[in-house]
Every structure is written in structure tokens, then in C-alpha cells.
Amino acid sequence: MIQETFAIGGERPVRRLGYGTAQLTGPGYWGPRGDARDAVAVLRRAVERGVTLIDTADNYGPSVAEELLAEALHPYPEGLLVATKGGVVRTGDSAWHIAGRPEQLRAMCEASLRRLRLDTIDLYQLHRLDPEVPMAEQLGTLDALRAEGKIRHLGLDTVTAEQLEAALELTDIAAVQNRYNLLDRASEPLLKLCEARGIAFLPWFPLGNGSLTTDPVCTEVAAAHRATPGQIALAWLLHRSPVLCPTPGTGSLEHLEENLAAAAVRLTEADLSQLGTLG
Fold first, then answer.
1. Where are the alpha helices (DSSP H) in the chain?
2. Residue 131 burial by CB count (10 A; 0-12/13-18/19+): exposed, middle or buried?
3. Which of its termini does the chain have fewer beta carbons within 10 Å around, N or C?
4. Residue 52: is it exposed, middle or buried by C-beta count within 10 angstroms (0-12/13-18/19+)?
5. For position 211, what pLDDT does the model report?
6. pLDDT per residue over 96-132, tens digit each?
């Protein structure tokens, strides 16, 4: 039996299959992607279809994805959890700069609040730990913002299990985001820790950056379920662990419907065994 929801921070239940906004921006997550009206339509349809977890970041665009999210959905419907990220500065489509100094994190969070038209961000995730700044200073800044009511829950992106353990000694962590999918399970130790501590795990590249949509094993299992390989890859994540909350992104209404339909796919033990050979 698949658990359909997960409570972020132990208090905010969301449907586990959410939506990510990165694909609403241009190549390299830089600039806009096509007509903004198409992006607005996809975001509104996602919520109509029952999505209650939307993941974005200040550097998708930069700023583009957050602004589109507010344009499409503000005032936000009751029960929708908006997650965003800060801690990385973009200066081009392939230029990413980690920026974790306290004054930088505070400015990024407050800018996201303005763009999203929010008083409080439900889940604010540190996009990358800055190796030049003590973890205690980075998390301390976010804790201060939480105490001010600007953040409700904290998350981390791209960390090891050891780093999460260290972070938990400093503050409460409600979610992590790491690459994890059928072909890449390097973050398995982190997943186990999240299970033990009741922490949401939002896997990025849940479709293997597209590679799983053409994988022969996924294709074979998909045929048996009258599904697509991408749906099988997402269904596998939902079966794999109750803390996994994939947020696949797309700029296409058709692809959105395909992704969300994955929540209805029920894999058998034989399917899971066959798919397990991919890892």
C-alpha cells in the first residue's frame, strides 16, 4: 500500500507527487521559456490536479520561476506548500556560485518572499552548503529568519548523510533534496537517515534527466501496466520509500498529466525486483 501523503516537518501534509518549476525557464535554467501564459497554465493545472507541493528556487531564471509561480497561483490555495531555495547566485546559463554568507542568505530569502508575495515561506532550502562559511553560521541565519516568521521549515540540497547528521545537531531539518532515481542511488545512506528521522526527501532528476524514459527495463515494465517508462520511474520512487516526494518538472500540459498519472501505477513485487536490477 503506497502512502499518498507525507507531513513536511511532521505538520504539513502534502501529496507525495509534486511539481518542480525548473522546466518553466530556458536552457540551463536561464531566462524565460517561451510564452509565460503557457507556464501559468501548467502551474494552475497542476494545482487543479491535486498537487500540494511545488518546488522552486530563486536562481531558476534567475527569479523567473518564482515570479511565474506568484503570477499563476497567488493568492495561494489552502493546503499548497511552496518550497523555494537560496544560497546560489547565477551569472550565466552555466555559471553557478555558492553564496552562503549570512548577509547573502538573508537578502536572498527576503527577495524570494517579495517575488512569491508571501509573508512566510513554507519550506526554505539551502541550495548548497558553502564550504567557505561554517555550517553553524549558515543554518543560524536561516534559524533567525524562522524565528522572525519568514521561514516555517528548513531544508538542505545536495548533502551527505554525515552533513545531515551534523546539521541536525544544530537545528531541525524538515527536508533534503539530492539526486536520486532508478539509475542513481548513491544517496541511499541519506535516504535511510531521512526515513529514521522523518525527513522528506525530494529527489531531483527523478527521471534520470530523461534517460529513464527510454530505458529498456522501464519500457518493458511500462508495457505490462499500459504506462509510459517515465511513469514507471516515478511510481518506483513512490514505492521505494514513504519519505520520497518527487517533484518532476515540465512546461507541457500533456507531460504534466502523464507525470501526475504515475501516482495511480501500482507496481508488483516482481516489477520492483526487475527494476531493482538497474541500480
1. 36-48, 64-73, 102-116, 135-147, 161-168, 188-197, 216-225, 229-240, 253-260, 269-276
2. exposed
3. N
4. buried
5. 83
6. 999 999 999 999 999 999 999 999 999 999 999 999 9
- Looking at residue 215, its pLDDT comes to 86
Map grid coordinates 547566485 to a residue. Answer: 89
Give the H or E element holding residue 156: strand 151-157
Per the confidence metrics, is the pTM higher than 0.90? yes
* pLDDT tens digit sequence for 154-191: 999 999 999 999 999 999 999 999 999 999 999 999 99
φ and ψ of 158, to 5 deg: 60, 75
Q: In this structure, what C-alpha cell is assigned to residue 45?
A: 493545472
Percent of the chain predicted with pLDDT > 70: 100
> Looking at 61-103, which runs of residues are DSSP E strands?
81-86, 88-92, 95-98
Q: Is the pLDDT of residue 51 over 80?
A: yes
Contact predicate 7/13, CB 8 Å: yes
Q: C-alpha distances in angstroms, 127 versus 59, 106, 186?
A: 10, 14, 19
Position of cell 521549515? 153
